[in-house]
Amino acid sequence: MPRISIVAKDGTVFEIQAESRTSVMENAVRNSVPGIEAECGGACACATCHVYVDDAWQEKVGPPGPMEADMLDFAYDVRPNSRLSCQIRIADALDGLVVHVPERQS
Amino acid sequence: MRDEPIDPCARIVVIGAGQAGFTACAKLRDLGHQGPITLIGEEAHPPYQRPPLSKGYLLGEITEDRLYFRPPSFYEERSIDLRLSSMASAIDRDRKVVALADGATVPYDRLILTTGARPRTLPAQIGGDLDGVFCVRNLADINAMAEHFRQDQRVLIVGGGYIGLEAAAVSAKLGLKVTVIEAAPRILQRVACPETAAYFRDLHDRKGVTLLEGAALETLQGEEGHVRSARLADGSVIPVDFVIAGVGVVPNVELAQAAGLSIDNGIAVDENCRTSDPQIYAAGDCASFPWRSGRIRLESVGNAIEQAEAVAWSLTGAPSRYDAKPWFWSDQYEVKLQIAGLSAGYDTVTTRPGAAGGVSYWYYRGEELLAVDAMNDPRVYMVAKRLIEAGRSPSAVIVGDPATDLKALLQ
């Protein structure tokens, strides 16, 4: 199982064994990572699971899809490495992934 | 408004383990409540998300454990006494005790009712009790109908609201022969404008769904106890293999009513989500709350979360006034509908064409923007939600002009 790290806004690092095909959001929520609200449960409908992908991982994770990019456009403090964590699927290639939780969700 | 915080060691009991009940418990612990928290749920499963039931779960894309808000260990870790397969049968307000169906009693200092709503069922006298007639509400409902989702099975969906249309989309995607009947003159009559209804009618039409409007169900007929056909008011007969009823929900108020709490299209609460008994709160689908000059009840995830959080804030002494920010979504085929605001009482609708086939409909009452339906146009949804929450109303002419920069509307 790929191992991912989610860094909360206070710096706490949540190291999680993530099942393939689940989303980063699901793993954050199930491990009670603060700051990931995920109100719509992963339907790309609410933009409350925004994260920053660590620079070293940006290329492997890839850019947001068109719908996701439109939602992100209105998120709080959006950056070039912003993604909605519900849209990042865990795969073996993401073993070691690091993402950061923003100061707040929109 | 600031409520008197309760004793941090007070006993809190929550009845109903859906989105609102789960959120209330989790938030109370997040806010530092130390006293015992008991969460009573009728179902055997730990609290789970419902929206994917009519979408990903029905399609077989999501497994049951992925629906759970938290793994079962969470409740033990956070000292939440989760009682599954457990039914509250009465509330004794004088003694401040909840009686359970199995004879146990649970004392409380504060009680939170998150009893939700149940699907309206088709009456037994028209065949609603035949085998093969299902509702879409909980895991058991979906698990019961799952075996029928095979190619070329004929499904009749009664009710052209969002639940019925989502079920139709999933059925069509899986290769079933789908007929939707709606007794009203058009689908989405109660919740959307003719333009949005036309958009979805056209979408389902292109996917091969037969959509009959102004078509009232007269009776379901069975053979050996299993539904086989439906007769409509116009005399036509539709052969079916199974039926899904999507004809709305009714709030679960019986427990509150029997305890003498005020009921008004739901358990009546004030702007702090408090019922007519100040020791008892209610949140989610079961609660009706003040809205503008009246009172409404919202059946949505967003409302369940926000009301439950408001209750938790209130109990721990933080500012707690609940300010409804209605929003909804529906997924059908490749279309994502996002709704901001509540359209009730609108008099005009303005169309805004979006990029890449998206479109949005903006509901106005006079000059006031009430709500927006955005189809495959998330930027519009995000802007509209902020405008409506801020009570701002750009003119219909400006929003209807595709050249208008949406972000500029927020400045």
Characteristic key phrases:
heterodimer, A: alpha+beta, five-stranded mixed β-sheet, B: 411 residues, five-stranded parallel β-sheet
Furnish the topology, listing elements before pairings.
The complex is a heterodimer of chains A (106) and B (411).
Chain A: E1 3-7, E2 13-17, H1 24-30, E3 50-53, H2 58-61, H3 66-72, E4 82-84, E5 98-100
Parallel strand pairs in A: 1-5
Antiparallel strand pairs in A: 1-2, 3-4, 3-5
Chain B: E1 12-15, H1 19-30, E2 37-40, H2 56-59, H3 64-67, H4 73-77, E3 80-83, E4 88-92, E5 97-100, E6 105-107, E7 110-113, E8 117-119, E9 133-135, H5 139-146, E10 154-158, H6 162-173, E11 177-182, H7 194-206, E12 210-213, E13 217-223, E14 226-232, E15 237-239, E16 242-245, E17 249-251, H8 254-258, E18 267-268, E19 280-282, E20 287-291, E21 294-296, H9 301-315, E22 327-332, E23 335-341, E24 348-353, E25 359-365, E26 368-375, H10 378-389, H11 396-400, H12 406-409
Helix pairs in contact in B: 1-9
Give a description of the structure.
The complex is a heterodimer of chains A (106) and B (411). By secondary structure, chain A is α+β, with helices and mostly antiparallel strands. Chain A is built from three helices and five strands; from the N terminus they run ββαβααββ. Chain A has helices at residues 24-30, 58-61, 66-72; strands spanning 3-7, 13-17, 50-53, 82-84, 98-100. Chain A starts with a strand and ends in a 6-residue tail after the last strand. Chain B is an alpha/beta fold and 411 residues long. Chain B is 24% helix and 29% strand. Chain B has twelve helices and 26 strands. In chain B, α1 (19-30) runs parallel beside α9 (301-315). The two termini of chain B are 29 Å apart. The mean pLDDT of chain B is 95.
